[in-house]
Specification:
By secondary structure, this protein is mainly alpha-helical. The chain is about 35% helix and about 5% strand. The chain has a domain of about 35 residues: Histone, subunit A. A hairpin with a 2-residue loop joins strand 1 and strand 2. Helix 1 packs across helix 2. The longest helix has 21 residues.
Length: about 100
């Protein structure tokens, strides 16, 4: 598989990019080099290699979900600049 000038022009059009002829030729060369490298990686013997999503064994570290007493409404509003009817009062943002 190789990338041609039409492919680069199509992708540039989708990305709404205006490329000069020199830039298009440069991208054709660079993209073909990337594809050539990917094909070379396909030659590797990966039999017996377990698929992974990360190079290191990563696990989630979770704490136990323990029910705790929450703040009372009065304590939550203690440092509020303004409150009304047991709720934070903030300036209106919609007219």
């Amino acid at each position: 598989m190789s990338i041609g000038m039409k492919d680069v022009e199509h992708v540039a059009n989708l990305a709404r990019l205006e490329l000069s002829v020199d830039e298009k030729e440069q991208f054709v060369g660079q993209l073909n080099a990337i594809l050539k490298y990917a094909e070379k990686l396909g030659e590797l013997d990966t039999d017996g290699v377990e698929p992974t999503s990360h190079v290191l064994p990563v696990t989630n570290v979770m704490r136990e979900d323990v029910v705790k007493e929450s703040l009372s409404n009065e304590a939550a509003l203690l440092n509020a600049p303004d409150d009304e009817d047991g709720q934070f009062k903030v300036p209106a943002v919609l007219e």
